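name: query_chain
kind: protein
chains: 1
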Amino acid sequence: MTYEKAYAELAGLSREMEDGSVSVDLLAEKVRRASELIRFCQSRLRDTEAEVSRIIEGLQPDSED
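structure:
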């Protein structure tokens, strides 16, 4: 799964829950799926942030120069 697909699914779930189109019988399942997607997106964002930081650090000139 990509971040974009997870985010799009999460946005769709959010809209469904906000507009009341989710039946009470399915609400817990939708909330559970939304929490899984949130965890996935948070993890991808943390991983990407760490990778970008490593790349930027690699571009910095050595302080010993």
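note: The helical segments are 3-19, 24-59.
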